């Protein structure tokens, strides 16, 4: 009985070495994340986006961020930004919607080919300044960060993940 338990335990441990991170582009090891061109009047949006995306690539670990001779690059534009009332009641505004329109290009510089391109990627998030619900975003900045997360996940899912 002990041998069976030990065998299952060893099989479990060796099975845990599998990773869900696989890549359709195994030759890509490094990336440069360029500052997105900001076509909006929203101040400093491009810098916040650059810092957020860079941090996410660092935490993800599949691509190392470099400044010289990258294998791939991410670039784009912030085409439009809106922050508007989403829902209100007789007591006032309850929720706002932040929507950001991006142009995104993810390029394999080794093979000189575009892996992912979207000229009108619209992402949105709702926030409720007076919410007591734990999962709700309560600030415009928190909604922006969630949009940046969605942008990163979209880029990774479509370009690097291989299922």
Task: Describe this protein with a few key phrases.
disordered N terminus, 6 strands, single chain, Double Stranded RNA Binding Domain, alpha/beta, 163 residues
Describe the secondary structure blueprint for this structure.
Layout: H1 2-15, E1 30-33, E2 37-38, H2 45-60, E3 64-65, E4 72-89, E5 92-108, E6 113-127, H3 140-159
Parallel strand pairs: 1-3, 1-4, 2-4
Antiparallel strand pairs: 4-5, 5-6
Helix pairs in contact: 2-3
Walk me through this protein's architecture:
The protein is an alpha/beta fold. It has a single domain, classed as Double Stranded RNA Binding Domain. Helices cover 31% and strands 36% of the residues. It is built from three helices and six strands. The protein has helices spanning 2-15, 45-60, 140-159; strands spanning 30-33, 37-38, 64-65, 72-89, 92-108, 113-127. Strands 1, 2, 3, 4, 5 and 6 form a six-stranded mixed beta sheet that branches. Strand 5 (92-108) and strand 6 form a beta hairpin. Helix 2 (45-60) packs across helix 3 (140-159). The radius of gyration is 20 Å and the shape is elongated.
Q: So what's the CATH class?
A: Alpha Beta
Biggest beta sheet attributes: 6 strands, mixed
For this structure, the CATH topology is: Double Stranded RNA Binding Domain
Low-confidence stretches: 1-22
Described by the principal axes of the CA atoms, the overall outline is: elongated
Instruction: Kindly state the number of beta strands.
Output: 6
Distance between the termini: 38 Å
**Could you give me the name of the CATH homologous superfamily?**
Lipoprotein like domain
Average pLDDT taken over every residue: 85
Domains (count):
1
* Fraction in helix: 25-40%
Beta content: 35-45%
Whole-angstrom Rg: 20 Å
Q: What is the CATH architecture term?
A: 2-Layer Sandwich
Give the helix tally. 3
**Secondary-structure class:** alpha/beta
Tell me the series of helices and strands, N- to C-terminal: HEEHEEEEH
């Amino acid at each position: 009985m002990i041998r069976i338990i030990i065998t299952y335990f060893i099989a479990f441990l060796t099975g845990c070495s599998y990773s869900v991170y696989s890549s359709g582009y195994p030759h890509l090891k490094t990336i440069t994340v360029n500052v997105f061109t900001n076509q909006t009047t929203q101040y400093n949006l491009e810098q916040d986006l650059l810092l957020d995306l860079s941090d996410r690539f660092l935490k993800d670990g599949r691509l190392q961020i470099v400044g010289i001779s990258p294998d791939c690059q991410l670039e784009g534009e912030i085409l439009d930004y809106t922050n508007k009332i989403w829902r209100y009641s007789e007591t006032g505004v309850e929720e706002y919607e932040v929507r950001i329109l991006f142009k995104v290009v993810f390029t394999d510089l080794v093979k000189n080919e575009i892996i992912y391109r979207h000229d009108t990627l619209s992402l949105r998030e709702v926030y409720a300044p007076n919410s007591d619900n734990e999962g709700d975003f309560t600030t415009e900045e928190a909604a922006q960060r969630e949009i940046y997360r969605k942008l990163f996940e979209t880029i990774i899912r479509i370009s690097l993940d291989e299922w």
